[in-house]
């Protein structure tokens, strides 16, 4: 029988831990004196009360190991609760209506980068920093961080870690689960600090360097400026952002293997090679189209701009150094195609993930070979390892659920009065956690003009995309809660 008290207990700890994040934006709020400090104190009070209430409901559950269904329930419920908590400062500020505040928080924690703010210039520094903080925590995952400390609370977190990390397969790390979480967050923090230093060397002030670093390594994409990365009129700064968007799209387990001496695991990884190949192909075609049409006559500049946009979209960071939605149609198509690709499994990026496309192509190839040789045995392999039929089935089901959800959400959004192109591209962007879109949204990723119902639909799509559907959908099945 599933233990609801244990679910409440663990969810309470995660909400309390999220509440501590409200302390971070208090620093710029007081330094700049922008009046936003009270909003974070109010949010801290609400989240502390909510977390404490859940802990009281859960009671003493020390020594109880969460089983599979309990772990999945904690992941799904906690992400919803922390997204609600994250919206509190936006609500208390009075600058946004509740639906826009929820949209902003869901976008932040899911590291999507879509925004419901029409003009970022009116937002206080404290709120700007909060937007960056929630993307940074959402990128690697608050639950992954909590898994590192769960042993001290008397519970384990192996299944929770598995439910939280993205992708159907992942390179295994040798240490036990708490050590895995610590290693992942250790690398995440290290890359963040390195990026802050590099941006400071590029002339950005400390506040902007920190904000930009938090949203780049998390492949989130929230910017402090309406112009996104185009605001920084510096090839050095944009190149650094480009590099770290790509780094954020790589499986973090591969970085650990490289640091322990196994560089071949990173350089020759099939998923990484697939990502590099698809980026170079799409960038090359887009750049050629830009040069051919005279949109960007210089080949070097055309390739850089194409590479920046394709990397931003495929990594699901969503920042932009040029308005690619105004490019010729072929160049736009090359960027939009990458909405459906994503980064590597085990990374901070969203989307379908490269490994699923690899498995899909290999499955199609096997089906063709079986038609030629009906009695042949053709296992599907990646990195020399056989992939189980169960994994292949889950990949096909993922594609089915992914595109079915996209179709349903597109229809639902058109019912709110938006045009089909805006509805379709917005749904694709939300499910892939990209941010920008075509139609009414454009490269800026601003959904401020969307009706409230459309914002709610897209918020749920962002959450579904971040949790890759099953961890959230399954909790609505009645049999999930039965024996």
The SSE string, one letter per element, is: HHHHHHHHHHHHHHHHHHEEHHHH
Strand composition percent:
under 5%
What is the helix fraction of residues, given as a range? 55-70%
Low-confidence stretches: 152-156, 169-174
Secondary structural class = mainly alpha
Distance between the termini: 5 Å
Given the structure, what is the number of helices? 22
Give structural notes.
The structure is a single chain. The chain has 483 residues and is mainly α. The chain is 64% helix and 1% strand. It has 22 helices and 2 strands. It has helices at 4-20, 26-32, 37-58, 68-86, 88-93, 98-109, 125-140, 142-153, 158-164, 177-201, 206-217, 235-248, 252-259, 264-267, 270-292, 299-314, 329-337, 354-372, 389-414, 420-432, 452-467, 470-473; strands spanning 381-382, 385-386. Strands 1-2 form a two-stranded antiparallel ribbon. α2 (26-32) packs antiparallel against α7 (125-140) and α6 packs parallel to α21. Mean pLDDT is 87; it is low at 152-156 and 169-174.
Short synopsis of the structure:
This protein is mainly alpha-helical and 483 residues long.
């Amino acid at each position: 029988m599933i233990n609801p008290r244990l679910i409440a207990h663990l969810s309470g700890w995660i909400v309390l831990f999220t509440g501590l994040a409200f302390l971070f934006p208090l620093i710029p709020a007081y330094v700049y004196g922008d009046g936003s400090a009270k909003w974070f104190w109010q949010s801290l009070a609400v989240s502390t009360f909510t977390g404490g209430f859940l802990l009281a409901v859960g009671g003493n559950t020390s020594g109880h190991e969460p089983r599979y269904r309990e772990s999945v329930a904690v992941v799904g419920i906690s992400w919803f609760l922390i997204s609600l908590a994250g919206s509190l400062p936006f609500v208390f500020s009075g600058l946004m209506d509740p639906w826009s505040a929820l949209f902003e928080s869901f976008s932040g924690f899911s590291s999507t980068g879509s925004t419901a703010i029409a003009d970022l210039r009116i937002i206080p520094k404290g709120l700007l920093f909060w937007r960056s903080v929630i993307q940074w925590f959402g990128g690697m995952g608050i639950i992954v961080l909590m898994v590192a400390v769960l042993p001290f609370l008397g519970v384990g977190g192996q299944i929770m870690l598995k439910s939280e990390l993205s992708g159907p397969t992942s390179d295994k790390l040798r240490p036990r689960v708490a050590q895995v979480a610590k290693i992942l967050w250790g690398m995440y923090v290290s890359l963040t600090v390195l990026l802050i230093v590099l941006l400071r060397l590029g002339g950005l002030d400390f506040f902007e360097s920190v904000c930009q670093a938090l949203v780049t390594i998390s492949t989130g994409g929230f910017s402090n400026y309406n112009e996104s990365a185009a605001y920084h009129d510096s090839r050095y700064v944009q190149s650094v952002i480009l590099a770290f968007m790509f780094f954020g799209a790589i499986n973090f387990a591969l970085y650990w293997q490289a640091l322990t001496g196994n560089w071949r695991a990173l350089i020759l990884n099939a998923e990484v090679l697939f990502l590099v190949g698809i980026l170079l192909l799409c960038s090359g075609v887009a750049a050629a189209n830009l040069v051919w049409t005279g949109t960007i006559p210089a080949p070097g500049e055309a390739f850089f701009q194409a590479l920046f946009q394709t990397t931003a979209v495929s990594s699901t960071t969503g920042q932009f150094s040029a308005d690619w939605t105004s490019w010729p149609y072929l160049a736009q198509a090359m960027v939009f195609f990458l909405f459906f690709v994503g980064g590597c499994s085990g990374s901070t990026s969203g989307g379908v993930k490269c490994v699923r496309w690899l498995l899909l192509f290999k499955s199609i190839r096997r089906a063709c070979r079986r038609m030629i040789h009906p009695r042949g045995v053709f296992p599907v392999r990646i990195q020399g390892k056989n992939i189980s039929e169960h994994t292949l089935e889950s990949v096909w089901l993922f594609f089915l659920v992914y595109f079915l959800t996209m179709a349903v959400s597109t229809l639902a959004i058109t019912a709110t009065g938006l045009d089909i192109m805006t509805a379709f591209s917005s749904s694709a962007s939300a499910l892939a956690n990209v941010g920008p879109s075509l139609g009414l949204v454009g490269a800026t990723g601003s959904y401020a003009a969307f009706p409230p119902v459309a914002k709610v639909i897209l918020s749920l799509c962002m959450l579904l995309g971040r949790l890759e559907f099953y961890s959230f959908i399954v909790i609505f099945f009645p049999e999930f809660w039965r024996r």
